[in-house]
Amino acid sequence: MKAIKLAIVVTGLMIFSAVATLAMVNHGAEQFAIDGGSKGEVPFPHKIHQEILGDCNACHDVFPMELGVIKTMKAEKKLKRKQVMNKTCIKCHRALKSKGESYGPISCNDCHKKK
Ligand code: HEC
Ligand code: HEC
Ligand code: HEC
User: Fold this and answer.
1) What's the angle, vertex CA 83, arms to CA 77 and CA 88, rounded to 5?
2) Most buried among 46, 58, 64, 90, using CB within 10 Å?
3) pLDDT over 90 at 114, yes or no
4) Predicted confidence (pLDDT) per residue in 5-48, tens digit
5) pLDDT digits over 44-79, tens only?
6) Contact, 111 vs 103, CB < 8 A?
7) Which domains does the chain show, CATH number per domain?
8) Is 111 among the annotated ligand-binding positions?
9) Which atom of ligand 2 is nearest to the CA of 44?
10) Which residues contact 89 (CB under 8 A, 6 or more apart)?
């Protein structure tokens, strides 16, 4: 009897902590600007992407979850200039367009509002 009660309590705790961990995931800001070097800032709707894609790693396998990290990694030569732009952002938007699904901007001025 005691063993069964203990098992129930332990299972309950495991479920509780799993749910708590999920709720605690930091989603970051809903909207911010990415540093676009010489081309000025790129407004980025973070939350829209999180909701539509449902996969953090669509972007965060390339750079960690930290504001300003793309700029830092470019300065440290861990990312090439325009690498995220071409290999992450535009690559996905193009692929969606060719599949006939709703997609994000592909032309320069739709992302680079300045200049
Ligand atoms: C479409 C691309 C993309 C997806 C998908 C994405 N992120 Fe991000 N995320 C970014 C970019 C870009 C930055 C900022 C990088 C920079 O400023 O250099 C960022 C930054 C962050 C930050 C730091 C921002 C802050 O306000 O402190 C957190 C936390 C974060 N992301 C969490 C997540 C989580 C959790 C998911 C999945 C639910 C997710 N992201 C999905 C692109 C994305
Ligand atoms: C989907 C949005 C998007 C589109 C479309 C886009 N860019 Fe970018 N661009 C970015 C982002 C994000 C960065 C910063 C990250 C990086 O360097 O990969 C950037 C960075 C740049 C940089 C600066 C690189 C540096 O380090 O100084 C240049 C130059 C640039 N883009 C030119 C262009 C041109 C030209 C086009 C059109 C052919 C274009 N971009 C289209 C999002 C975009
Ligand atoms: C894996 C796919 C994917 C990646 C990676 C991705 N996007 Fe998108 N993006 C989308 C989709 C899907 C939409 C269309 C959302 C909609 O239906 O309005 C979109 C829309 C957008 C929009 C327009 C949002 C609006 O309000 O209409 C901007 C701006 C944008 N993306 C910028 C970026 C930038 C900058 C990056 C790179 C840091 C990026 N995206 C990376 C899939 C992606």
Assistant:
1) 135
2) 90
3) no
4) 767 666 666 655 655 555 578 999 999 999 998 898 999 999 99
5) 999 999 999 999 999 999 999 999 999 999 999 999
6) no
7) 30-111 (3.90.10.10)
8) yes
9) 12
10) 104, 111
Q: Which ligand is nearest to the CA of 40?
A: 2
* Annotated binding-site residue? 49: yes
Cβ–ligand 3 distance for 94 under 6 Å, the answer: no
Atom of ligand 3 at shortest range from CA of 70: 38
pLDDT of 104 above 80: yes
CA distances from 3 to 8, 9, 10, 35, 42 (A): 9, 10, 10, 57, 58
The ligand minimizing its distance to the Cα of 27 is: 1
Q: Which of 31, 34, 38, 39 to mutate to test the pocket of ligand 2 (most atoms within 8 A of CB)?
A: 39
Under 8 Å between Cβ of 56 and 26: no
